[in-house]
Amino acid sequence: MKHAPKPPRSFWFAKLVRATVGRALAALFRTRVLGIEHVPGSGVILAGNHISYADPVLLWCKSPRPTHFMAKSELWDSALMAWGLDRFWAFPVKRGAADREALLRASALLKAGEPVGIFPEGTRNFDGSAEAQQGAAFLAIRNGVPVVPVGIAGTDEISPPGSRMIHFPKVTMSFGERIDPAGFTQEKRGERVQAMTAEIMDRIAGELEAAKRGKRA
């Protein structure tokens, strides 16, 4: 990574962008949010499906609370992108291996009562074949915070395969009931992480179906 992230002392720029450009983007895609009451006012992990680059952008815009997103560390190789990500509540994570620094950063945010956004598939997943990463469950169990599953429907239509045009479909997000890590009582932590990861992915799939129904409504 060419650029070491340097978070600003305050996130006034992100707050300004979220209140202006963020609202405009959400309106452009007629973004509808369901189940917003499931997001607590304390530390929480928002875990969603990922099929488009627009997923984290629109979730950043429409989350009921300003959310810190994990993003692949390669994005910080661009000085311009790094400057923006540092100011938009994002922080880098190295994919393919346990990133201790990213886990510590996420844990500190969660303990401070902040929401952290994670896409367990780790990258855009077009056909449902991507293996789920266990970071969301690991962080939830380690820090004793819930996971809220999020289903996002419609973003796959923004730039469909074979199309050179940008489309503006209706997008719907469905926030599900919280998944409490205390509900997983397997003897070994690895087993708890594995079981919770499976539950998270199953619940995300359920919320995606709810979002698709909401999109058609």
Set down the secondary structure blueprint:
Elements: H1 12-28, E1 32-34, E2 44-48, H2 54-62, E3 68-72, H3 79-87, E4 91-93, H4 100-111, E5 115-118, H5 135-143, E6 147-153, E7 172-175, H6 189-216
Parallel strand pairs: 1-7, 2-5, 2-6, 3-4, 3-5
Antiparallel strand pairs: 6-7
Helix pairs in contact: 1-2, 4-5, 5-6
Structural features, described:
With 217 residues, the protein is of the alpha/beta class. The protein has one domain (28-216): Glycerol-3-phosphate (1)-acyltransferase (3-Layer(aba) Sandwich). The chain is built from six helices and seven strands, in the order αββαβαβαβαββα. The protein has a seven-stranded mixed beta sheet with strand order 1-7-6-2-5-3-4, with helices on both faces. The chain is globular and about 50 Å long. The model is unreliable at 1-5 (pLDDT under 50).
Which key phrases capture this entry?
disordered N terminus, globular, Glycerol-3-phosphate (1)-acyltransferase, 6 helices, 217 residues, 14% strand, seven-stranded mixed β-sheet, alpha/beta
- Assign the CATH superfamily: Glycerol-3-phosphate (1)-acyltransferase
Structural class: alpha/beta
Measured between the Cα atoms of the first and last residue, the distance is 44 Å
Mean pLDDT across the residues is 89
CATH 2nd-level architecture: 3-Layer(aba) Sandwich
Number of discrete helical segments: 6
Show unreliable segments. 1-5
For the largest beta-sheet, the strand count, sense and barrel status come to: 7 strands, mixed
CATH fold field value: Glycerol-3-phosphate (1)-acyltransferase
> How many strand elements?
7
Percentage of residues assigned to helices: 25-40%
Radius of gyration: 17 Å
Could you say which overall geometry the principal axes of the C-alpha atoms support?
Answer: globular
The SSE order reads: HEEHEHEHEHEEH
Q: Any idea how many domains? A: 1
Proportion of beta-strand residues = 5-15%
**So what's the CATH class?**
Alpha Beta
